Amino acid sequence: MLNVYELVTQRILEQLEQGVIPWRKPWRGSKPINYMTRKAYRGINTLLLPHGGEYLSFKQCKDLGGKVKKGEKGHMIVFYKMIENVDLETDEVSTIPFLKYSTVFHISQCESVTSKIEPLQHNKPIGIITQAQNIIDDYITHSGVALNHVEDSNRAYYTPANDSITLPEIAQFEGSEEYYSTVYHEMAHSTGHQSRLNRISKVAAFGTKTYSKEELTAEISSAMLMNHAGIEQPGTFANSVAYIQGWKSKLKGDSRAIITAASQAQKATDLILGL
Question: Residues 220, 8: contact at Cβ < 8 Å?
Fold first, then answer.
């Protein structure tokens, strides 16, 4: 007789056979921008900055009458500055790009600085679902993982180095179910920490086989937890299947990828539920 885990995995496999379903992030958030110029950061800076929203330098924060919160660490950004170069033989002057870096702070790291971004408008209220929230609260309590919410963020991620999960605020999500699905995904990642299931020995590069397999594991675990909490919706399940399909396509030739990930997902889910 199939258990709940196997049933969820079987349903995922059945959906995968029907092809890729378009998927998207189930929350709304801003891109990282400069507080003063209102210009969006581009290129590598979008990867260096951990959240969406406004960033400013230490001096800019101070000049605005604010201050950086005690203990906060800044984020590096890089930019090119054109400098003049004089040819000693011909005296010809040319300009060459010189790469420089600076440090900025997210507005959430500052005090007494008011955001210029209009609050997000939501079509429906986002509420706490008790049985789903209990799973989160219990896991955070017994695991010691830190759970942080950043207003207007456009990213959700787990950081092994400090064993923490960072998420947009719940109000940014399209619905409660989408919020819990995202939290469960990141919680599943945290089970791979070396102090737990030791599945994540180091941060894998985006798009690699190791990264892809970990994403499969986390999303299948999320689907299992949604089912366990009794809050799975057709939309959230379809998005999970599509996400899984997207990473599965990165593992061409690995016919057992889904089954292996499902097995790891079951262990992750058991750990989260304290079984």
Answer: yes
